[in-house]
Amino acid sequence: MARFQIVSGAGADHGAWGGATAAHALAAMHRDAGYRVRVALGRIVWPDGETRRLCGDVEDWQITSLCSGPACTRETISGGFCPSHYRQQYRGRPLTAIAEPVERVPLKVRLTRRALKRLGASPARRAREILERPS
Ligand SMILES: [Zn+2]
What we know:
Elements (H helix, E strand, L loop, with lengths): L1 E7 L4 E7 L2 H11 L5 E3 L2 E3 L3 H7 L5 E6 L16 H8 L22 H6 L6 H7 L4
Antiparallel strand pairs: 1-2, 1-5, 3-4
């Protein structure tokens, strides 16, 4: 079953819902809220016009198809997969969770020679020159 992220026109996130199509997922969300809706021929069937106006149909919501890869919440590009899981699938690899990208921040830290030794690190050549410079 595919998963869809459903966001209201006003931008309120209503979470991820399962269904064969966006209409099925939206209908599942409405049913969970107590409305008697179903899907026929790909369209939501409303009990009456008032419920239709109150709930809003597929075009009234922002519905995004989510990747069916393990632990993935990215948007799909093809075959029900995000770019990373599509690539895994295409290459015949087992589908694995994609790690979030790591932010690398350059950092300059001044340490004493003793602190470096405790960390098991050896200072870079330039640092050694500075550390070993006679004062
Ligand atoms: Zn994915």
